[in-house]
């Protein structure tokens, strides 16, 4: 049954939101329902904002009182603006945005709510239940007859139970033993959930585990006693921490019918409450913020500005936090202001002389139009009067809280005192939450840098390093990024890599950046703002849009032809863009450019993290450059030590396979050569110099070129190797011993080939006959580069048609898998399977068998030289 009614209409202007809040507050306080005023005002504020600001229509507010609840209806004249059904899972957007939170709040705060449509109106209503006020639970009241006092047993027992952070019982007093029948030693260490019958009161959505995590909680549930029955209890939970910082929960429990012993008195109307000298309520922290308070910093700050706005009937509110050096204030929460543009913006602590120019003192501005720029945050927002107060902890400025209104002269010192009292109550909680967030950010930053260092150290490839740099910054640090590289001091910065979190925008940004001058390669550490991309993209997009509309004019600044960015590209680079130098070994080797979309700025913490990352990335990029240069030099040197191509020998098939071990930045010691000596005669060699690197390369080059020169002088094989041995020894400290198989081959008219071979310390060549037998084709002799006087001799081998001569380096025969080694016998076994194969097929089969012999990558260079005599008629 409706017992009272109040209605009012409000015009579609921003001031109407504050007027609607005042109307609802005055109405409910007049009815004596101060208990639900805060929730009703918050919900009304959101719904009226949706009507007059977002829908752009007038709003009708109707308050209905009944015996059990209060119903408030907000109607607008925009029925086409549909609202999602309650049963539909709808993403209502970010809680940081200005609109769209009304229904979320209704669902969270109201007992019932709904939406009704008519052809001309849309009505959103919510219903708040009136709290039951049991006799004897008021904060203060008259003396009552004894028969009206709450009923209790002869002795009131209050069970005191302490629960540790894991939910287990750590303390259990005597009254708990008496009430529930368990001795302390029986329940200590057990989880409270084993004893709690939850929920005892239907309708609650909080579980016992969640209730134990709240800072304060009161309510009813049951405890399973030792006799198996459930004892209804009324509980009051308080979350505390010991001197070591360990949290726990203290639970006070009484029988449910004795709840008056613990139940917090309900708040009385404002007329009955204690007031300050100015007649205003001195609400405690829990009343101002609400209970439970948000756990996260952003939630706490957003709740603070909303409650501050409602408390002073303002049109907007904002909260700023001080930077570490307390010279600037950073916007962290706002309501009624364009938060997307203002969030993380910074203003100086001391904006001007005197009290009104400092955030360290409370200030009231009657009319901002008379003092332009007095509050830079409110420039261009339409706000005229504002009150700001500092947040201080132990005398240190930690932030600033402000409330503003569209009308002039709205606030006086009385409102400043009320807001200052609220700021004093909230300052410590905000600072604690800020320090917690800062600690989490520092830990996250440390983990990020450790992971980034590991990733950058895991590659020496330049292109992969550039990709990693971009992928680590997007989207963690920025929306888009570009990496410029500088080859040397005389080179201009080159755009090497571009990345955006939306892949469809990468080409547009790359096209834009490639047409504008790159940022100057300044070695000064730290991030500096680069405005060129945003300016050029905006002007080019505006000119393009005007041309599409058939308009002339536009910006007078000359835009580079061919840029033509779309509006999406202009929006992508329209925010803040910063450049960080990539400095390695006292030289600028590039620049890391980070950007945000339109109206977004970087937080200082993000820029500091990006600066740390840029130092690590610069060193990794320079290491990759040095490694690439070294690898290119080594590969070029290795190619110079091998013959450019093999000669075509009539009547003999020749095939060579060479595999260098390692990462490609070391010059190997293995080499081979096949070259013409004179008409009808060819020399061949395969050798292995001890070690790798420049010294080994010197001996390799000496050996290959000396062999050709000496052989073409008409010297025999032993004479060639003896003179080569002397040349190696003449190298002195740079000399290396050399194993070498050298031979001269001359194809014969009958289809065979005659070979004269000298094997100086090298693995013996193997001869494969047509019948599948394998035998060594030479005898071992001393290696080169060890002793002066060598007595070498040559052996003559005749390869019949179909025969194969296989020559390898020790990287083939010494291939290992654990304790097993391929060896000469294993190589011979593989060669026996190659009967009838061409020289190329024989070399390929040998290499395949060697690679499959062990799972690990080869640790030594390998060279395989196969020669086959097919005969007069090729197979």
UniProtKB/TrEMBL annotation:
Keywords: Hydrolase. InterPro entries: Bact_Sigma-Reg, GAF, GAF-like_dom_sf, HATPase_C_sf, HATPase_dom, PAS, PAS-like_dom_sf, PAS_fold. Residues 160-190 form the PAS domain. Pfam families: GAF_2 (PF13185), GAF_3 (PF13492), HATPase_c_2 (PF13581), PAS (PF00989), SpoIIE (PF07228). Signal peptide: none annotated. It comes from the Bacteria. This is PAS domain-containing protein. It comes from Streptomyces djakartensis.
